[in-house]
Amino acid sequence: MKSLWNDEAAAAFSDDDLGMRVYSSRLLGSDENLVMHGGGNTSVKATTNDFFGRALKVLYVKGSGWDLKTIEKPGFPAIKLQETQMLAELETLSDTDMTQQLRVLMLDPSAPSPSVEAILHAILPSKFIDHTHTDAIITLSNNPQGKRILEAVFPDCLILPYVMPGFILSRQVNQAIKQNDPNHYKGIILMHHGVFTYSDEAKIAYENMIELASRAEVYITENGTTLIATAEHEVDLLGLARIRNAVSLARGEAQLAILDRSPDAQGYSTLDTVAEISSRGPITPDHVIRTKRIPVVIGATPAKGVPEIHQYVTDYKKYFEENRTPQLQILDPAPRVGIWRNAGSIAFGSGVKECNIVADICLLYTSPSPRD
Ligand SMILES: [Zn+2]
Fold first, then answer.
1. Are both 273 and 340 inside the same structural domain?
2. N- to C-terminal Cα separation, the chain
3. Do 123 and 188 have their domain in common?
4. Are residues 191 and 335 in the same domain?
5. Residue 13 falls inside a structural domain
6. Tens digits of per-residue pLDDT, 45-55?
7. Cα(192) to centroid of ligand 1, in Å?
8. Residue 106 and residue 75: Cα distance in Å, rounded?
9. Which residue among 6, 39, 233, 236 has its CA within the 20 to 30 Å range from the CA of 195?
10. pTM of this prediction?
11. What digits encode the pLDDT tens for the residues 118-156?
12. 291 C-alpha vs ligand 1 centroid, how far in Å?
């Protein structure tokens, strides 16, 4: 992975801190190995004037609905820095209260809601904070030996165990950085989640991210194995139509389906262990909102009505009931990803955009080696 930083291009954004934030956020967003489809988030701390003209320290943090690749200044709502930091000191904070409090702290109530990771951005002391769910580092982390490998590859990083993103994660990091000065580390790696880099210089925060991701890529190239499993099968169009119909009925609206028949995707679908290895959960929680927790695995010759999809719906409802809390509302129970035995992987979506996003993430799962 190479740094895309260009001093000349950066100069065009250098009028203010938020401008530099836009520039390096777009660099991060332009590399799919770092962030995909609205994933990752960035922030900058700055001083602005409130309505009465008083100087106020604020955190500009990525707002929901924005993509780092194309983000602009309005994509970074300003929230009061000090009060946001105080939230991390609370013992508990529900998701609902956190979302509400972050909105209360916004300078412009019509701006988009701040990222759920806003509190974490606020407590890290540096000016520029970069956060990605980079494939290569998560790949090392999502391994039975993950902790040992990360410690060997990243002796200069603070490595923290997985906790739920949101307030719990902010609190964990807040406690960790009280014991370990983050300025002594090049970055913070969150197991099974992603990476934070930070600096008072936008360029350093960005280039540290690139350097850490590159280190993981080198490790994978030197120590990884490539899975060679290819297959060639004709497409069973009737079977595909049955699958699409069953998923549409489960979701309650017509679904598009993209079948990936690349050698990697087909080979993956032929593995005897595919049902087990495809159901271990997503690479990073960031993907859950796109792909659901697990895919549906469909037999090579789908029967009428595709019972596997009925079973998926039943299991999804059961899973929700087992884990429900009063604030949670069940989503539609339809799968977003299918592994079709011997045929490949299928991305489902209500429109072309959704389908393409899911297909991109499927590619990540079925491709045995890191993409170029
Ligand atoms: Zn994250």
1. yes
2. 8
3. yes
4. no
5. yes
6. 999 998 899 99
7. 10
8. 13
9. 6
10. 0.79
11. 999 999 999 999 999 998 999 999 888 999 999 999 999
12. 16
Contacts 24+ apart (CB under 8 A), 271-276: 271/229, 274/339, 274/341, 275/339
Q: How far is the CA of 272 from the centre of ligand 1 (A)?
A: 32
Backbone angles phi, psi at 135, to 5 degrees: -55, -50
d(CA 153, CA 157): 9
Ligand 1: distance of its center to the CA of 276 in Å? Answer: 26
Q: Are residues 95 and 15 in the same domain?
A: yes
- Structural domain including 214 reads 7-223
* 228 domain residue, yes or no: no
Question: How far is 248 from 243, CA to CA, in rounded Å?
Answer: 9
CATH of the domain at 50: 3.40.225.10
Greatest C-alpha distance within the chain: 69
Using an 8 Å Cβ cutoff, are 347 and 291 in contact?
no
Spacing, Cα 190 to ligand 1 middle (Å): 9
User: How many domains does the chain fold into?
Assistant: 2
Domain boundary among the residues 196, 223, 250 is at: 223
The verdict on 204 and 285 lying in the same domain is no
Task: Identify the domain boundary among 201, 223, 245.
Answer: 223
CA dist., res. 271 & res. 50, Å (int): 60
Query: Which residues have CB under 8 Å from 214's CB, separation 6+?
Result: 1
Q: What is the pLDDT of residues 19-42, one digit of tens each?
A: 999 999 999 999 888 887 778 899
The neighbourhood of ligand 1, an ion, using CB within 5 A, equals 194
Q: What are phi and psi of 94, to 5 degrees?
A: -75, 160
- Distance from residue 115's CA to the centre of ligand 1 (Å): 9
> Do 194 and 277 reside in the same domain of the chain?
no
Q: Where are the beta strands (DSSP E) in the chain?
A: 41-49, 55-61, 78-80, 128-132, 157-160, 187-190, 194-199, 256-260, 296-298, 337-340, 344-349
For residue 187, the CA-to-ligand 1 centroid distance in Å is: 14
Give me the pLDDT at residue 371, please: 39
| DSSP-derived pairing of the beta strands 194-199 and 187-190 | antiparallel
